[in-house]
Specification:
13 helices, 5-stranded mixed β-sheet, about 50% helix, alpha/beta
């Protein structure tokens, strides 16, 4: 696949790491056929109308060397032609590369409708793991050329929710495994994703979550500390402490009420916990 500038709909490499087996996105019974590039026509409902010429050229060079690795999804259009449901960019690049035929999976309109309904219902299942939801959403996006906004409407979810789910496919392999096995939560995963510009820090954060049983809040605090300049692991962990000599001193002054620091993206807050109105009154008296 091209290593150039990427955008929505430019292949699974946009959102799915290269080491993910994308064949799991297709049913076992689907048969890949070789179709003439001249028998294919663009999908009139394709949401993308422009294609990066430089990226197409780079993809064409890759196709010259390795061929079209991922099948197109097409549907019969009459008189020996097929409309492209997903894979128009690969089709255009194959033409540039001088390919005569491309691999494709042929589906009828009814099959596409049934599969789309099944996928939507699948995503809505409560027993699916976050990664399974992400794969189903990505399949809707790739095989039906549906935008994430359109998928969100079909699912009755906010666009931001759908985008956050799909982003889980960018997690490092080990983090994906931990999420699938329930050793980390989705909130942990999002914190790890926010460090995608530094794979070493991603791994360090994952290790800390697994080793010390960090909460989602602690994972987020680690990210905040790192972004504020505490690059060394020891310094970042030290800054994550919710209790300090100062909070303990204040707690003592308040008659033993728990006092904690909660750091946020900007600044933070000081928490004083109380169990009753009487304890709240005691806090007021102590502060006054």
């Amino acid at each position: 696949m091209s290593t150039g500038k990427k955008g929505l709909g430019r292949g699974f490499d946009v959102l799915i790491p290269q080491d993910v087996d994308t064949t799991i996105l297709f049913d076992d019974h689907e048969k890949v056929q070789k179709l003439s590039v001249n028998s294919l026509i663009p999908n009139p409902d394709q949401p993308r109308t422009t294609f990066d010429e430089e990226a197409l050229k780079q993809l064409a060079e890759s196709i010259k060397q390795y061929g079209v690795l991922q099948p197109l999804i097409v549907t019969p259009h009459g008189k020996g032609t097929y409309a492209i449901v997903a894979g128009e960019r690969r089709w255009r690049a194959a033409q540039l590369a001088g390919e005569k035929k491309v691999p494709a999976i042929v589906r009828t309109t009814k099959e596409l409708e049934r599969l789309e309904i099944a996928l939507v219902e699948n995503v809505q299942r409560v027993d699916l793991s976050p990664l399974e939801q992400a794969l189903s959403i990505e399949r809707l996006h790739q095989q039906f050329s549906m935008t994430y906004e359109a998928i969100a409407k079909r699912l009755g979810k906010a666009s931001s929710t759908v985008n956050n789910i799909v982003r889980l496919l960018q997690l490092p392999k080990e983090a994906q495994k931990a999420l699938t096995e329930g050793r980390i939560f989705e909130g942990h995963a999002r914190a790890i994703l926010s460090l995608k510009d530094n794979p070493e820090k991603q791994q360090e954060l994952l290790n800390n979550i697994l080793r010390y049983g960090w909460s989602v809040r602690q994972a987020e605090q680690f990210v905040v500390s790192y972004r504020e300049g505490f690059k060394e692991s020891k310094a970042a962990r030290e800054r994550m402490r919710t209790e300090t000599p100062e909070t303990k001193q204040l707690s003592k002054r308040l008659g033993g009420m728990p006092v904690h620091i909660r750091r946020m993206a900007k600044g933070g807050k000081l928490e004083i916990r109380f169990k009753s109105d009487e304890e709240l009154e005691q806090i007021f008296r102590s502060l006054n």
